[in-house]
Write a structure and sequence with these properties.
By secondary structure, the protein is mainly alpha-helical. It has 33 helices and no strands. Keywords: Repeat.
């Protein structure tokens, strides 16, 4: 099929077996011609070494049981044959007197060496990926419902294998197809996706073509959002190229990369790694200048990172406090504002320096304004709860903090109401503040929260009431509410799940100076609860029990 001078006889090659024979015949010719060349001995020695590896790779490929059933084998043999033909032609050219200059020839030899590397690698990958084991099913066979599904899986595996095999243009075509397939049937792609496929996609993130990078990050974004490939993506090194795309990619590339980081940063280890790879600064820049979707995704990523205590100072040094406060004021999407509030809540959880930074940047005012919405969220109230002990009562009053607490207790989510009750516990350290909170109308709302299904909400509400009732006018307010005594008595339940017991005891003890309230406590079963709480050494339970029992005895003697 090949003449001695390396000129290929024109033949009609159809089957994969024909292409195998053709490639096997070309190898010795190419090696022979390469050895005859006198110039560039170092480069030709390397090329000969690679040519001599081809027969064993072809043997491995052809010995696979599914060799003749997969189109990738035929394509790979065609690529190998084309490279061998180029090697023969270049060797003949170098032996002649009319080759095109030293630099041009060196470049051609380097290109040939690179193609041989690619051919050798791809032959190995065809077997390594396992794609050859998924033989394409004959279209005539459709006897069972599982056969079409198996064919789809086989085709998808072949498509994924194409991301790893061949030159960049071929990978680009495979990438185009993959993006379209994932739009229509992401589930099938995920079902057959392997680690080697993930690695191939990650490598394409660093392609020189902006178009390829954009399409690759679109596919990776879908994988990250699916929640099934995060560990593989991170372990295959996806973070550095994603961060580079956030920093300098196209508009679409930035958006998809930021969304990918948003999903991946839900893991604490990955959040730390994003900081380690320098991801904070470009994410903060997206918060400043990005479009609405990218801005929200960047804010969420930074919020996820801020949940890791040891990196909070790093975030602060990059200017995150000012950026998040600005998002609260001017964020494009409501989601961006919510993520900013959550981030500020995380940042102020325990670090006094960060608390001071938020206060000095006007964070309290921004958080309070954000709370004016129709459904106040927990994060903003939580951030304020973290800050109240670091500012004066006068500042809180002048900012309108207490009316916002009332608004949250009346209209907020359950989590926001719990955070508001917790803030009351922290802020009510003086009689003046307790007086202002009571006068603002918080007490009836806290009493209502004692009926919440959540134990933690009941506990913090009872704690707030027990603090407020130390002031006489607040006690009168509690007594006026018909639900106060029955709700508090219910919280004397001795079960371990009820963590509000001690606060209920303290609140009821403050109300026990009233005969009417003591009768109510007795009528709702307080004595039975208190006997058990006394045995459990709950503070104040024994004393309150004695007072109620004396009242019960007096009422009995009075009846006689």
């Amino acid at each position: 099929m090949v003449e001695d001078r390396g000129k290929e006889v024109v033949v009609d090659i159809q089957s994969v077996e024909d292409w195998l024979c053709h490639a096997q015949e070309l190898v010795p010719v190419a090696v022979h011609k390469a050895r005859e060349v006198k110039g560039f001995p170092g480069r030709w020695k390397m090329i000969i070494s690679k040519l001599e590896q081809i027969p064993s790779r072809l043997s491995d490929l052809s010995s696979h049981p599914c060799f003749s059933k997969n189109s990738l084998c035929k394509e790979q043999l065609q690529a190998v044959s084309k490279t061998l033909k180029e090697a023969i032609e270049l060797a003949i050219l170098c032996m002649g007197d009319n080759y095109c200059g030293k630099l041009r020839t060196q470049s051609d030899l380097d290109a040939l060496s690179g193609k041989l590397d690619l051919n050798l690698r791809d032959c190995g990958l065809l077997i390594k990926t396992g794609v050859l084991g998924e033989a394409t099913m004959p279209s005539a066979v459709a006897g069972s419902s599982t056969e079409p599904e198996a064919a789809i899986h086989s085709n998808t595996r072949e498509l994924l294998a194409r991301l790893q095999i061949g030159h960049l243009e071929a990978k680009h075509r495979a990438l185009d197809t993959l993006v379209e397939v994932m739009k229509e049937d992401e589930k099938t792609v995920l079902a057959v996706m392997g680690r080697s496929n993930i690695a191939a996609l990650v490598q394409l993130l660093t392609a020189t073509s902006p178009c390829i990078r954009e399409k690759t990050v679109t596919a990776i974004c879908s994988l990250a959002e699916s929640g099934s490939c995060e560990n593989w993506l991170v372990s295959e090194g996806v973070l550095p190229p994603l961060i580079r795309l956030v920093e300098s990619g196209s508009t679409v590339g930035k958006e998809k990369a930021t969304i990918s980081l948003q999903r991946l940063s839900m893991s604490t280890e990955t959040a730390r790694a994003i900081v380690g790879h320098g991801g904070v600064r470009p994410l903060i820049q997206i918060c400043r200048t990005g479009d609405s979707v990218s801005q929200a995704a960047a804010a969420c990523t930074l919020k996820n990172i801020s949940a890791v205590p040891e990196v909070r100072q790093d975030l602060a040094e990059e200017g995150i406090v000012k950026v998040m406060i600005n998002l609260l004021d001017c964020g494009i999407l409501l989601g961006s504002k919510e993520y900013a509030a959550e981030c500020l809540q995380n940042l102020t959880a325990s670090n006094d320096n960060l608390k001071r930074a938020v206060i000095s940047e006007g964070g309290i005012r921004s958080l309070l304004v954000y709370l004016d919405g129709p459904l106040p969220q927990e994060s903003a109230v939580g951030a304020l709860r973290n800050l109240v002990s670091s500012v004066s009562m006068e500042m809180l009053v002048s900012c309108g903090f207490i009316p916002r607490l009332v608004h949250v207790l009346r209209s907020g989510s359950l989590g926001a109401q719990q955070a508001a009750a917790s803030a009351i516990c922290r802020v009510c350290t003086s009689a003046d503040m307790k007086k202002l909170v009571g006068e603002a109308g918080c007490i009836p709302l806290l009493i209502k929260l004692l009926e919440a299904k959540s134990n933690s909400v009941r506990e913090v509400s009872a704690q707030a009431i027990s603090s407020l009732v130390s002031l006489s006018q607040n006690r009168r307010e509690v007594k006026r509410d018909d639900k106060s005594v029955p709700n508090l008595v219910q919280l004397l339940d001795p079960s371990p799940q009820n963590t509000a017991k001690k606060y209920a005891v303290a609140s009821l003890a403050s109300l026990a100076s009233s005969k009417k309230r003591k009768r109510l406590m007795i009528s709702y079963g307080a004595i039975g609860y208190l006997k058990k709480l006394t045995e459990m050494d709950i503070p104040g339970a024994k004393k309150l029990l004695e007072r109620l029992e004396r009242r019960k005895l007096r009422s009995l003697f009075g009846k006689k």
